[in-house]
Amino acid sequence: MLDLCQAFVVLSEAQRFPQPGVHSEMRNETMASRCVNGRSGFPMLFLVAMALLGKAAPAQTIRVDTTAGRAIRFDPDQALGSSMDILPANLVDKVYSEPILKESLSAGWGPITYRQNTELTIAAWHWNPIGTWSDPAHQSGYFTGSAEPQGFLRFSFGYSLPHRGSTRSDAPQGKYSRLTDGDAASYWKSNPYLTKRFTGEEDARNPQWMVVDFETPQEIDALRIAWGNPYARKYTVEYWVGEDAFSKPLGGVWLLFPGGQVRDGKGGTSALKLSDTPVKTRYLRIWMTESSNTCDTHGSDDPRNCAGYAVNEIYAGNLAASGEFIDIITHAPGQNQTAVYVSSTDPWHTAADIEPSRVQTGFDLFFTSGITNQLPAMIPVSLLYGTPEDSVAEIAYIEKRGYPISYVEIGEEPDGKNTSPEDYGALYLQWATALHRMDPKLKLGGPVFEGVTEDIKVWPDAQARTSWLGRFIDYLKEHGRMQDLAFVSFEHYPFPPCEINWSDLYREPELVKHLLEEWRKDGVPENVPLMITESNVSWGLTQPMADTFAALWLADNAGSFLASGGAVFYHSPIQPEPLRPGCHGYSTYGNFVANEKLEIQQHTSQYFASQMINLEWVKHGAGVHELFPAEADVRDDAGHVLVTAYAVKRPGGEWSLVLINKDPSNAHAVKIEFADAHGQQAAHFSGPLTMVTFGAEQYHWHPEGAKSHADPDGPAARTTHSAKSGELVTLAKASVTVLRGKID
Fold it and tell me: At what angle do helices 42-53 and 2-16 cross, to 10 degrees?
């Protein structure tokens, strides 16, 4: 009877720990304890054993659905790429040196997207330092880069905007709003391209606004606005009731102050008694719907100077019983001013506003360096702080040089600038008209959302619509211009840097799938491809970016995006960056552990994952691959899917599977099956089978501050053997594995 008891325990434990060689001590200990005095405990053991013997143990299986018509076709040379972003001025030459270019390209990514960073800092972009000013005598106004190739474009720069309206941006140092800077001569001005002169529609179709954020609720009953030119003839003043007006736009409502309606504004300094009793609010909004169209300080020669709205300074607070105005706004030329946000900003600037410390790569250097892999590149044009003429000149320059373009991405993160979908739509159509007039074949798209994980919500419009993308799509449809949207792009930075934990890996596939479903629900047609044009673990530095976590995340991110119907995926960035402090410890966005001089000491886990994707899973340069549905039944006690699988049939008939084991503690032995949806025509790997694995056994990050490093630091483990039908494949704990071979 003891032998039967032992047999039962072996069977029972095999269900819990099916992988050979794992948990053997635990298995032996369990067997010994359960089989002591086995004769007295036999009846119950016997009954359970019989039940188990009558029911096969649940298999751990990867099933690939080979049903005809289920495959998603993609070419890695179009669908799997990387990006080049803004650089410190002193490191441009280093990044484009031959040794670093060679290292950067060795990660295996195909096409590249050029990231347009100046809009994130609320700056204009001179993609070409040579060009013309709308006011050449004063080297100021609206700049248009020269479309004629002359010389070699090695660098390009951003220019800060003198009429800036928003306090906060991605580069706060030396940046601030002119609305609360304490300088009566400076002023904010809205974007003239959002007025009737350029949109062809009434100003009320694209209302412009200013929002004062007091940070904590304040008692408000009075307002003063020192208007510039042009000023608002019609506007309202409102207060917010609810949660955060920007991060939770559906968690409250804008209400009109009792004295907040102005229908015949005269300009100058206007004082408003908003309410007889103070209203407690954190946010105050001025909503402008009709312009005076009077000209600003730059004169009447350029119609852009006479369109929109301009304000020198805002004052808000209370009227004392004596009639004295008590201003509670902090007026200062810096980030300590009371924060203000605006709907748009005039891109007018001067030659003196150059920002020389942050460099965008010049297009000649970009295209001739080799960083593009000799493939067409995605190129941006500046929208929020640019002009249509400048964007046309930019693309014309690239075409005259003969550099290949795959897509043109219009603008950069309008949601992050609180740009309304209608404002972005009005600008997008002006740019699309100008660009397609120059080259009808250009594939234009956007809007390049920030790294969100949910549909983007905004304050309701008159029809109570709250989806940013839904309203943008509606805008294009209402204007009969859907044909001008060749793709929809967004960035993917899913996890807050200080809140990441291992279980976030289980969520990644569903996050990606959910986002793509949301964009389709918003009205993006099925024939308009969806693209991730920038991605990483988080928007802020965090140690998991350098740990094994990042390798598993990246493989799952790329695979789940394509499997969910995404068209083009760009991982960021391609170049090395210095190791720097972040949440949980030191890390880097790049593929390399490098110092401040960009001297590369090691590769990060994302580098090895990149190679697994690009050099093992797919084959660049081979043509169209087919991605078939695949799933695994490996779950933990909480129901988390521990193993995800992405199955590709390469040109030539070879099958390649990338398998991600997200179990941080255990290996898992799995069986690989290929069959159609009805379970027919079952097949298995047969003949030579290549297995490449990278994970916790090949790489371990040691957090030691500025001396943080990996040991071991790769490479991936590689074996080749002759596959046998139905054999088990062991996936190491916390690993990415690629299996590649033929099936029969």
Answer: 50
Q: 3-class secondary structure for 275-334?
A: CCCCEEEEEEEEEEEEECCCCCCCCCCCHHHHCCCEEEEEEEEEECCCCCEEECCCCCCC
Last residue of a domain, one of 291, 323, 346: 346
* Statement to judge: residues 256 and 363 lie in one domain: no
On whether both 435 and 414 belong to a single domain, the answer is yes
Q: How far is CA 545 from CA 464, 496, 574, 665, in A?
A: 40, 12, 14, 20
Look at phi and psi of residue 621 and say left if phi exceeds 0, alpha if psi is from -120 to 50, else beta. left
In whole angstroms, what is the distance from residue 713 CA to residue 734 CA? 15
Structure tokens at 635: 């779950």
30 found inside a domain:
yes
pLDDT (tens digit, 9 = 90+) per residue, 72-119?
Answer: 999 999 999 999 999 999 999 999 999 999 999 999 999 999 999 999
Beta bridge partners of 517: none
| Alpha carbons 84 and 156: distance in angstroms, whole number | 14
Q: 242: which strand partners?
A: 252
Give pLDDT, residue 29. Answer: 36
Both 262 and 316 in one domain: the answer is yes
Report the sign of the C-alpha dihedral through residues 350, 392, 448, 533, in that order.
negative
Residue 528 CA to residue 486 CA, distance in Å, equals 6
Q: What is the total count of domains within the chain?
A: 4
What's the CA gap between 663 and 272, in Å, rounded?
63
Residues in the chain: 744
**Residue where one domain finishes, among candidates 561, 588, 617:** 617
Q: What is the DSSP letter of 370?
A: S
**How big is the CA angle at 125 (ends 442 and 314), to the nearest 5 degrees?**
120
Residue 565 lies in a domain: yes
Within-domain flag for 38: yes
Q: Both 65 and 80 in a single domain?
A: no
Q: Report the CATH number at residue 67.
A: 2.60.40.1180
674: which 2 tokens? Answer: 């290929």
Residue 609 near residue 555, CB atoms below 8 Å = yes
Q: Looking at residue 275, which CATH number applies to its domain?
A: 2.60.120.260
Residues 249 and 365 in one domain: no
For residues 688 and 741, what is the distance between their CA atoms, to the nearest angstrom? 6
Q: Same structural domain for residues 369 and 518?
A: yes
Q: What is the per-residue pLDDT for 33?
A: 38
Measured CA to CA, the distance from residue 353 to residue 574 in angstroms comes to 30
**CA 117 – CA 113 distance, rounded (Å):** 12
CATH number at residue 405: 3.20.20.80
pTM: 0.91
CA dist 604 and 192 (Å) reads: 46
Helix (H, G, I), strand (E, B) or coil at 198: helix
Judge whether 169 lies within some domain: no
DSSP 90: G
Q: What is the pLDDT of residues 649-674, one digit of tens each?
A: 999 999 999 999 999 999 999 999 99
- Cβ burial of 169 (10 Å; 0-12, 13-18, 19+) is middle
Same domain, 362 and 340: no
C-alpha pair distances (Å), 22 with each of 410, 666, 693, 732: 53, 8, 18, 11
Dihedral angle sign, alpha carbons of residues 549, 552, 558, 563: negative
**CA–CA gap between residue 294 and residue 296 (Å, rounded):** 7
What are phi and psi for residue 278, nearest 5 degrees? -60, 145
Q: Does one domain contain both 478 and 613?
A: yes
Q: How many other CB atoms sit within 10 Å of the CB of residue 437? A: 10
Q: Mark the ranges of the chain whose per-residue pLDDT is less than 70.
A: 1-59
Q: Which domain holds residue 221?
A: 188-346
Strand runs (DSSP E) across 148-204, as ranges? 155-160, 188-189
